[in-house]
Amino acid sequence: MWGSDLISSIREIFCSEAITAPVERTARANLHALRSKHPWVGVFGPPKSASTFVWAALARILAAERLVFNVVHPDDPGIQLLHELDPHQMQARASEARSIVFRLHAMASGNVLTYLDRFCVRSVLCSRNVFDCLVSLREEWIRQWSVPAHVGALDVGGEDNFIGRVDASQIRRFVAADDQGKTDIIIELTAAWYLRFYSSWKRAIQNQPHAFMVVRYEDFIGREEETLARLLDHLGRPNVHDNLARVVDHLKENRDESNLNVGLVGRGKALMTGAQIDRVLAIAKTLGATELINGV
Description:
This protein is an alpha/beta fold.
């Protein structure tokens, strides 16, 4: 059990307006000690990179609470407003003696990196070939925007997702388009975002190579237990509350929880026209991110 004095000292680092350097050092040392027993893990990845599977697996293995820490509506926490890390939610939970695994489709912004450090979060980055992500995202949006809950986005003028606001007119055009037309829309709306996402995290990893572990989709699928074991090593071997094989089997059988649809490597290019492939490559060239087509 964590004593009230220790918990109070941790709270000071987040609540005091005029904290002294010695008190801050003590509070941070106590927070590090708390995190060694009850880790916080941030799972970052673009959509369709198996980040949901990794998030769900780590939460089960560590018996951790599964959160998102997105910016939410002040009157209804169930409504997500931005795919950006919300430090206020983190601060409210910072001194709890409880493990948390959270997931975000957020870039390595100054906001994200500042609060990962401040709250002593250990981070995992999920990565996947951009072409394969785009085709899987097309299928995900087809599923999402065909169910009543998402069709309702048209009534409120659009939907807020990882790229920002998607207007109702864009949703209607996507739903009405044929398969190739849908792919064209996906490329124009999201290809640059994927490349910027990878670019931001590449820089963060270069600056702090030991602070992050990369899980590449192409290496993860079929070797889930091995990858999760390496993840636990990266996290300092925290207490494991479930068998790795059992967790992997459960998530493969319960795909609504893991949101995993196993795609073949190279499937993205195979399902695109030559013009679509050239368009993605042109966007990457314009952004100076050609080397990030395969992810980080």
